[in-house]
């Protein structure tokens, strides 16, 4: 279980980016964080994998406070937290299979990683995961040859081969068309359920959040103004979150 208690962060004095954020997520759940641009969504994800130092609060992953981890503990913790990026962060000139295997780098010495030394088991698992995301026949193609939706599915496989407890996605579908977005969201939801992983995705597409997420967290001006099952996000809640009519929400 992931539990966030009283999380707070200011980048600049007297300008809080996050104030008193509290939520709990059980394994297997897909949570969408929504809210206007600048609300603090990315800051939450960066705090969860400790890319930034938050100011106060607790972040408990299976009871262990990741905020108090030292350097070597942090390396271990980061293996448990997979990342999926808006712009995929793939090495375009390498093959799909090699990119998936990069998800194992957190488990290897720098040298073994640089030399591209992967075990037969790792390679077999990478191929199995590519099968799960429907990309088996692309394993030996360069990533540069793939569409955006396919690249993001490689990103999903790369995150999963890490055997994470949590996957964090910052705007995972913001660069995709609607059809590819639907495929990626459904795939993520099904896989995290099957593998009993927590997934947190920052999204600006409210409809897709409502359709696919189990739980929705709404952030406005660094404060949590909504935290409930997706069905409960009605028009009134959306208006409260975005401050005005939903048509005026952040553009895609
Ligand atoms: N590195 C930074 N330095 C200073 N201010 C920042 C930095 N990153 C984000 N902010 C500010 O923190 C607030 C929240 O930003 P962010 O978490 O990126 O919002 P969102 O992802 O919801 O668009 C914004 O006011 C933003 O300008
Ligand atoms: Mg952001």
From TrEMBL:
CDD domains: ABC_PhnC_transporter. GO terms for molecular function: ABC-type phosphonate transporter activity; ATP binding; ATP hydrolysis activity. It comes from the Bacteria. SMART domains: AAA (SM00382). Signal peptide: none annotated. The keyword Transport applies. One of its GO terms (cellular component) is membrane. PROSITE patterns: ABC_TRANSPORTER_1 (PS00211), ABC_TRANSPORTER_2 (PS50893). Keywords: ATP-binding, Cell membrane, Membrane, Nucleotide-binding, Phosphonate transport, Translocase, Transport. Pfam families: ABC_tran (PF00005). InterPro entries: AAA+_ATPase, ABC_transporter-like_ATP-bd, ABC_transporter-like_CS, ABC_transpr_PhnC, MetN_ABC_transporter-like, P-loop_NTPase. The keyword Translocase applies. SUPFAM superfamilies: P-loop containing nucleoside triphosphate hydrolases. Residues 2-246 form the ABC transporter domain. NCBIfam families: ABC_phnC (TIGR02315). This is Phosphonate ABC transporter ATP-binding protein.
């Amino acid at each position: 279980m992931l539990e966030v208690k009283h999380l707070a962060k200011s980048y600049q004095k007297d300008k809080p980016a996050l104030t008193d954020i509290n939520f709990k997520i059980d394994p297997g759940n897909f949570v969408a964080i929504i809210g206007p641009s600048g609300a603090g969504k990315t800051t939450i994800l960066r705090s969860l994998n400790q890319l930034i130092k938050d100011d106060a609060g607790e972040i408990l992953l299976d009871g262990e406070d990741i905020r108090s981890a030292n350097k070597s503990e942090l390396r271990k913790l980061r293996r448990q937290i997979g990342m999926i990026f808006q712009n995929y962060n793939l090495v375009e000139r390498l093959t799909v299979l090699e990119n998936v295997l990069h998800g194992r780098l957190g488990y290897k010495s720098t040298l073994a990683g640089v030399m591209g030394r992967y075990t037969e088991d790792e390679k077999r698992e990478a191929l199995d995961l590519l099968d799960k995301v429907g990309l088996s026949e692309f394993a030996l193609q360069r990533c540069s040859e793939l569409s955006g939706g396919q690249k993001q599915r490689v990103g999903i496989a790369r995150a999963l081969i890490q055997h994470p407890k949590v996957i964090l996605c910052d705007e995972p579908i913001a660069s995709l068309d609607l059809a590819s977005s639907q495929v990626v969201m459904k795939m993520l939801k099904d896989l995290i359920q099957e593998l009993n992983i927590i997934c947190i995705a920052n999204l600006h597409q409210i409809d897709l959040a409502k359709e696919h997420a189990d739980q929705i967290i709404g952030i406005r001006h660094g404060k949590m103004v909504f935290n409930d099952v997706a069905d409960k996000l009605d028009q009134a809640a959306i208006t409260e979150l975005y401050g005005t009519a939903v048509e005026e929400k952040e553009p895609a």
